[in-house]
Design a protein that fits this description.
The chain has eleven helices and 15 strands. By secondary structure, it is of the alpha+beta class. Helix 2 packs antiparallel against helix 8, helix 3 packs across helix 4 and helix 7 packs antiparallel against helix 8.
Length: 393
């Protein structure tokens, strides 16, 4: 799959072996990209593909200007069922497990993004639904999507999630004064309380062996915290655990991953996994021991982590999807947007587009009734466990 558009040559790659030579160029291009995150790195994307490629095939789009690679779209085609019909969904490789996703464009030329979309359109016989999730609202990709919708696509905004972050553009002492007094006092009370009750220690994992050992503890605490709720821990999936452990091995030598630990009387009570790329930090996973909930161990851990970030010249900390407690530290907001896009080419597009709009409105209405949502989750959970039991038998 290779095409020419103006001064660009665009190629689609479906064989992972053909991507191995792109590793260095992929990551260097990412450093110039507007959306900078470890989750767009070669290591994260291809490692995710290694563990989660069932019913999928690669559809990575490479844009070249002369001999230089100027654009990469890390995509795959996954076979799913939608409203009882088999559907080929074109999507980001690691969209499901990433805070942010986007095309990798370097200095963000609109012409490169348009080439990617044109190539996708020209190959629409390979896919039925284009799903692009978790794109930051500041991305030029969104502008190009908006320009295409109505001309060549039906477009549907599936989700808009508000995210909260902290721009570190002042000394820590000034930041403390800017933070509302009520918030600051609450965190200080949490720290004083745990120190009164016992001895605490805050540290980071430095070696691979220590990292792996503590990651296993994070999985354990996450399962303990969530398995008895409506949303059981994602780390019941051993494939996901293996993916994270392998990611540690790939990212740790580049110092792009960090695991912070808080102990109380020599017992691990909270852990925080974070990514660091080009001076920007994203908080990926956190877990705490529910037996120590009264001591607010995660609040205390985050306090020490953020104070240290100021000392280490981190430029920004992204706390991910907004929850009220994150306003204890964050001071700015932005959205990430997920799209579902259908090509204007066949009856099946009208069918899916119409049903998806109705279904989205229904889900929005349903969220007004928490008891119903709880019932649906329990029913899904029960159906999933029955399915797993049948497979094991």
């Amino acid at each position: 799959m290779r095409k020419k558009f103006k001064n660009f040559e665009v190629e689609g790659i479906d064989d992972i072996n053909n991507l191995e030579t792109l590793k260095e160029k992929w990551n260097s291009l990412l450093k110039e990209n507007a959306t900078k995150t470890v989750e767009l790195s070669y290591e994260w994307q291809l490692n995710y593909w290694k563990y989660f490629n069932e019913n999928s095939k690669l559809f990575v789009v490479i844009v070249k200007e002369g001999h230089d690679i100027v654009g990469i779209a890390p995509l795959k085609i996954t076979n799913i069922r939608r409203f009882g019909i088999r559907v080929r969904r074109l999507e980001f490789i690691a969209g499901k497990e990433s805070n942010y996703q986007d095309f990798i464009i370097g200095n963000n030329k609109d012409s490169v993004i348009q080439c990617i979309f044109q190539f996708i359109i020209d190959n629409r016989n390979h896919w039925d639904l284009l799903s692009l999730v978790n794109i930051p609202e500041t991305s030029r990709t969104i502008i190009c999507i908006d320009d295409s919708i109505g001309k060549q696509f039906f477009g549907l905004v599936k989700d808009i999630h508000k995210c909260i972050f902290l721009d570190i553009d002042m000394p820590y002492e000034e930041y403390i004064e800017v933070v509302r007094k009520k918030r600051r006092k609450y965190v200080e009370r949490c720290v004083r309380k745990i120190k009164r009750e016992g001895e605490i220690d805050f540290y980071h994992c430095e070696t691979e062996d220590s990292f792996i050992l503590h990651m296993e503890k994070l999985f354990e605490l996450h399962r303990k915290l969530w398995n008895d709720t409506d949303t059981p821990s994602e780390f019941n999936n051993q494939g996901l655990c293996k993916f994270y452990l392998e990611s540690v091995r790939k990212l740790l030598p580049k110092k792009e991953i960090n695991l912070s630990v808080l102990t109380f009387n020599n017992t691990i009570v909270s852990l925080l996994l974070s990514f660091l790329f080009d001076g920007e930090c994203i908080l990926q996973l956190t877990a705490y021991d529910s037996d120590y909930k009264a001591l607010s161990p995660s609040i205390v851990l985050w306090h020490f982590f953020i104070k240290e970030a100021f000392e280490n010249n981190v430029k920004m900390i992204d706390f991910g999807t907004y929850y009220p407690y994150k306003e204890l530290w964050g001071n700015k907001f932005r959205n990430k947007i997920s799209f579902e896009i259908y090509p204007k080419r066949a009856f099946i597009s009208y069918y899916f587009y119409s049903f998806e709009r109705i279904y989205s409105l229904f889900r929005k209405y349903l969220r007004k009734f928490p008891a119903v949502v709880h019932f649906v989750r329990k029913a899904r959970q029960k159906g999933s466990s029955k399915s797993n039991n049948n497979e094991s038998n």
